Amino acid sequence: MARAVAARGHEVEIYTTDWGLEGKVPADGRAVEDGGVAVRYFPVHAPRFWKTSLPMCAALRRNIAGFDVVHLHSLYLFHDWAVPVLCRRAGVPYILRPHGTLDPYIRRRHRWRKALAEVLYQDRALRRAAAIHYTTAEEMRLATPPAHGARGMVVPNGFDLAEFDRMPDGHGFRARYPETAGRRIVLFLGRLHGKKGLDLLIPAFARVLAARPDLHLIVAGPDDGVAAELGRWVAREGIAGRVSAIGMLAGEDKKMALAAAELFVLPSYSENFGIAVLEAMAAGLPVLISDQVNLWREISDASAGIVVACRADAVEAGLARLLDDPDMARRMGRAGAALAREKFTWPLVAAALEALYVSVRVSK
């Protein structure tokens, strides 16, 4: 996002911490150039759960008045307490992007800790924001009650069109995973996390497979807590030979998987945006998603895929429709590719962000 805005001629800096990158980045605040953006890393210290960084706060105190607008990401963290105070003192407007944390499904987690943060600083930070940045209209709708009437603006995430202009064929992927030979591939691409709906997908796929023995499910993504359960679900359904959990895919490997697949599926219980869905559409795949993936309205309106409830029988019915009607699936794939290119490329997103920044600066 920052690179895309910088490409329009703006000076963009990122202040962040080294959390998860300890020893891999210089955590002394010096600027590291990355695609036209100056990135400054600062050390995290206790209490670490809050991603606390007093050195970052000190650097912002020195420099924040030199910026026209601040874009603050995520809620319930140290910077949500510190940065709004610094912005107010310097007279600099800030935009707050919650990254789905105001979704009721996510907001319920660690409720007592979040309630305390809301009383101490988070509600105040929301009320005083020049705007709340949502990535879908559905995210904004879900966040309306806890946003305390703050002005909401929708600017989506984007993708790099050049990455998908030239797609590989699927032969390389099939050669790497010979168990897929002669089979139609259903692709799940995402973290192996409880919210992703794999507990719905596995029984749904097993029932669809019983009537269509030429299928194979690829589960691609890093383990985030449910890999062991996934194995048990697959074993319980008796489909171990028809499901491959292959770990995280990136770059050309991910594109090869998308090229080999017949459709993409993500039956999440909560999904703030769904970058993997966007990438699947850009690759021309029809998508099957739940109505808890916040892109669902855009996909439904464009007839770019099938939207179902978070139930195994609904996922089963959606899979059957796409697999049994290849003409419809191809139409949806073409519609999804057109939607991705018309609304979600980084130049379009950067122009919308620029307009948002100008609007909050003018209204200051």
Describe this structure in words.
Helices cover 45% and strands 16% of the residues. The protein has helices spanning 2-6, 54-63, 78-90, 104-107, 111-128, 137-143, 161-165, 171-176, 198-211, 227-237, 251-260, 275-282, 296-301, 312-324, 326-343, 346-362, and strands spanning 13-17, 31-34, 37-42, 70-73, 94-97, 131-134, 152-154, 184-189, 215-220, 243-247, 263-266, 287-290, 305-308. The protein folds into 2 domains: 2-158 and 346-362, Rossmann fold; 161-343, 3-Layer(aba) Sandwich (Rossmann fold). The chain is of the alpha/beta class and 364 residues long.
Give the key terms.
single chain; 364 residues; alpha/beta; Rossmann fold; 16 helices; 13 strands; 45% helix
Please outline the major beta sheet: 6 strands, parallel
Q: Architecture of the largest domain, CATH level 2?
A: 3-Layer(aba) Sandwich
Helix content: 40-55%
| CATH homologous superfamily descriptor of the largest domain | Glycogen Phosphorylase B
Number of strands: 13
What is the C-alpha radius of gyration, as a whole number of Å? 22 Å
Q: How confident is the prediction overall: mean pLDDT?
A: 95
As a percent range, the share of strand residues is 15-25%
| Count, helices | 16
